[in-house]
Structure to design on (101 residues):
C-alpha cells in the first residue's frame, strides 16, 4: 500500500468512526468522495479537499483532525444544502438536459 492509499484509508476509517459512512474511495488510491461536491485528495503530504470552488488543506500526518473538519462540513452541508448543489445534482443526474429553456 502506497503513502496516498494508506492516508486515504486512515481518513476513511476516521470518518466512519465519526458517522460519515457513505464516503468512498474513487479508484485512484488517492481520492475520497465524501458527498456530491465534497472530495478529499491526498497529495504531497497533505489532505486537500474541495467543496465547489472552496479549497482547504490539512497535514497528512493527522487523519483524525482532517476527518473532524471534513465530517463537520459534511454535517453542515446535510443540514443546509448549498444553492449550487441542486444545479450540480441536476447536471449529474441528467435532469438539466430535460428541462425546457
Amino acid at each position: 500500500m502506497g503513502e496516498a492509499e494508506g492516508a486515504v484509508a486512515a481518513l476513511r476509517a476516521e470518518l466512519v468512526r465519526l458517522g460519515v459512512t457513505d464516503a468512498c474511495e474513487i479508484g485512484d488510491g488517492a481520492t475520497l468522495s465524501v458527498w456530491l461536491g465534497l472530495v478529499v485528495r491526498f497529495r504531497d503530504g497533505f489532505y486537500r479537499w474541495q467543496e465547489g470552488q472552496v479549497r482547504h488543506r490539512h497535514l497528512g500526518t493527522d487523519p483524525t483532525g482532517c476527518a473532524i473538519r471534513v465530517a463537520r462540513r459534511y454535517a453542515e452541508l446535510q443540514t443546509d444544502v448549498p444553492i449550487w448543489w441542486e444545479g450540480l445534482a441536476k447536471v449529474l443526474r441528467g435532469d438539466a438536459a430535460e428541462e425546457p429553456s
User: Anything to note?
Assistant: Strands lie at 24-25, 31-35, 38-43, 46-51, 54-59. The longest strand covers residues 38-43.
